[in-house]
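In this supplementary section we document a worked example of the pipeline. Step one takes a protein sequence of length 408 as its only input; no multiple sequence alignment statistics are reported here. Step two produces a three-dimensional model, which step three serialises into structure tokens for compact storage. The input and output of this example are shown verbatim.
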Amino acid sequence: MQAAGTATDNDGEEPPGAGVPRRRVAIAFAVAGSAALGAALLSLGVVLLLVRLSWPHVEPLGNPEFGINFSCAQAEYLLLEDPARGAAEYAGRNRPDRASWCAATLGRILDATGARLVRLSVEWSQVELAEGQYDFALIDALLGEVSRHGAHVLLGVGVKAQRHPEFYIPEWVSKQANLVAGEVISNDRILHDRALEMIAAVVRHTAASKAVDAWSADNEPYVASPRSEDWTLSREFVREEVAAIRANDPARRPVSINHAQHFVFDRRWRDALADSDILAASVYPFRNYEILGHQFVVPILEIGPLAPNYADQARQAHNAGKPFWITEMQAEPWYDGDMRALSPTNPSPNLTHHNFDRNIEYARRSGADRVYLWGAEWWLYEADRFGDTSWLEQARGAIHDSQFTIHH
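The serialised model returned by step three reads:
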């Protein structure tokens, strides 16, 4: 017989009050869970509020004039090289009709889009094949085509240029210089001196063209290039480039320096603003990132305070009496593979027609005075190879609307 007051009775039931601690624990867990959920929702609300209050959503729509970038080498890669043979110089860079073909291809794009602003780059390895021996046939043909269309050129001169491999260093310079991976190669005296000599010669020659209305001292000079040994150029060297351009241009046309940011923490655009007549930026709002083996398209300008604040850069440039230009505005997919693999049946999620329109709106809200769309060669490739003219038409719409607004 069991005595009264023991822990259990004959039915196995808990005595009165034994469940109270368990209920208190359950209630405590519920309260803690609710608090954590509330904190998470509050944090999410703050993040969403910060995004909604960021410049892409609150700045007024401006009316910059839109133009295009153009690279002959990129056009050849897309339009002339056989995809089955790969990027194996199939186009024939030394063919005698190269300059005329490139000029005609640029003319087709100008006709299709109505663009009256063109950004071109002089590739050092193509213009100075041997020391002191210059071949201006290609740039002369391109400038002539732009003139025939009544358009204007932002001409980039320097060590870096548009497209792959970015650093266009002639073989004869590479043999003389000591270029080390990951280094600031403008510190090499041979490259430094030969580059400034080339810049002076190119500017002296092209300054005679009335199509040129501005210069660019290199292309994203402060950004390390993974395509070319992670090389960079120093701020001091870029200043010397600016001085060389000014010294050899009797018309004293303005000189820009462009920079490419990934996040707001990069403040090197301030150097570009201080050292140039025009602050310029490369803007790619939709980028590919890989996390744990999964590919994501990240809308960079929708990450609130972490995103580059181009509207603030434009204000600071204007307060200094200088224009703010977007010299590369994403209008083709950010794609790490062979661009020729993309097609209407195999599109990139990175750039849809909707995202193209969003990029145009970002550009208009940035405060930019000019915007050069990036991807004109790809638009023409899509039209020629697949009969898809939608990208050319979308670009034409943005360019026409900007010209109509400016002229009226």
